[in-house]
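Entry 14. Ran structure prediction on the chain below.
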Amino acid sequence: MYGKMPKIKMGIEPMPVIHFEKFALLIARIWKKVYFLSINKINIRDHSTQRKDLEFVTFPFPFQEYPDKHGRRLRRINGNKKHVYIVQILHELLKEGIYYCDIETSFKDPNNPNNYKTIVKPSFPTIDNEFLKCFTSFEVDILNDLENSLKRLGVSQIRALGTHENKEKTIYDIKKEFFDMFHYVVDVIDRFTRDDGFFDCSFEIMTYADEAWRKSTYNREDYTEARQIMIDEINTPLLREAFEACQDLPDNIWKDDLINTLSEQAKKTKAFSKYLYAISFFRDNITERAKRSKKGKTKEAGRLWDEGLKEMKECGLKGFPSRVQDIFVGDTCEIKLKVRGDLCTQLESLREWIEENTKHAQRELCLS
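Output, structure tokens:
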């Protein structure tokens, strides 16, 4: 769904909100670990040393980690017990003239910073001394070290580090993608029986499948490169210790039989979901079937059709028509009976797999 992002420097180039959320998660995770490590190591009863000069972090990160659509996000709970995410808080502060970040929302959804099209731009070109006047000198050193290290990463690498922490949470997150996909799969099966359109549902299935594949397979390369860069670049020993403690070795995360099983299912589902999405598009756009336009949504549907067929063949999913015209009954939106049966069989197989493998997903991990 999303290509590899260019290696741009944080603090100079804009960052999509999805990547920014992962960036915030990464900072929160590291800061929390430094906080606890430093408190454990310092003798805070030594009153001969001024508090401001002690080498420890004086406060934890003031947000909670919370599982949301396509991954975890940082949130706080307001007076009405509603979840308020970090990008929403920054957006509200921006309205009050407090510029921690520039938040560029979608022109179609200007009041919703959670929209995936939102872009986040840092307001400070570097760490601002006035902004940090309430921090201890040690905390400023930690932040400077983090800034200098993160500048060496691309946004895809930041996203990978923010997404992944250890094997247990990675397994949970992959299973959650399938768990959240489930009712869309059931909905498409139901729509087939009623001969209804299924464009929106197929798009959601494709999106969840892509995220499951990213977490189980694709992110490993970016994570591996980014983790090593950070270890090489961090100068403060305590910060390096904290980073290594909260960002596990790649092999400890992905070299696992269950991860491999989830990866194979994600790859298969991603391939089939592209094919299904293309069918849903050409069902609703009869005149576009023969044109295969080279622009816009028709071009995208054609690309996904070709990719889906190729990837399905690689996964051993065979017997499906290779021409769009062979899906439908003439120039109608009716899908041929055999094709519809084969699609339903594949969807039922996916539904059963999800039921069997994610029924306890919501209870497998106690989030801190």
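Strands lie at 15-16, 64-68, 71-77, 83-85, 101-104, 119-122. Will compare against last week's run tomorrow.
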